[in-house]
Amino acid sequence: MNQSEICPRFEKAIGILSQRWTGLIIYQLLSGPQRNCTIKDAIGISGRLLSERLKDLEQEGIVTRTVYPETPVRIEYSLTEKGYSLEPLMKNIEKWSQEWIEKE
Amino acid sequence: MNQSEICPRFEKAIGILSQRWTGLIIYQLLSGPQRNCTIKDAIGISGRLLSERLKDLEQEGIVTRTVYPETPVRIEYSLTEKGYSLEPLMKNIEKWSQEWIEKE
DNA sequence: GTCATTAAGTTACTTTATGTAACTAATTTT
DNA sequence: AAAATTAGTTACATAAAGTAACTTAATGAC
Q: Which one of A31, A50, A76, A83 has the minimum C-beta count within 10 Å?
């Protein structure tokens, strides 16, 4: 039986944040808009999954994809207001890790 | 190339929290020590994965397993100090979800 | 005692997610 | 024209998660 007493909004939020790579992608984008390859090199995700996650995060309204029609075309990903609203949370995780996770 | 600039402690913390179910298990245990089956019913995880996660969390020093040699034997899981130190983080996610996740 | 029940956990198997690498398309540099 | 770069996709191998049946141990009904 699944008589869940847990708030569905909380469950949804945890669902987004507990998907592999999403936390790191959001954290990485906190330092400003970036191209696909920059994120890729910074966090070590494969191109395949990065595209997939960015698409998901776009659908959740956390990330925006902007095409700059220069030559060559430049595509940048950035956080929306909703995305930036996760900054305190990320800083919180960062602080917690410094207090509770051992070096190496 | 994976020229990660991300702090390994942060990466480790995200690694724990972004594993499926761990967030919900910790959140559930914030309301006090509980038996395996109570957690199971509350969050809707399968017995197999719950055992696996609880073992992982025990190894991370986040959860303790206590056997009460009563009849019948009672086994309870509870948060350690390290586990409880995640409470502000969890409340943070809860608050965020109430502000930014739509009902339904 | 014997049998059904319950809780914790494991085992075996299916389905889904992730990792890896080769490939396409568009555009630049040489 | 050939080689390189970026964003993204496709195809396939491996790892994680889901499902359900099973084990162990102890209880209560009979």
A: A31
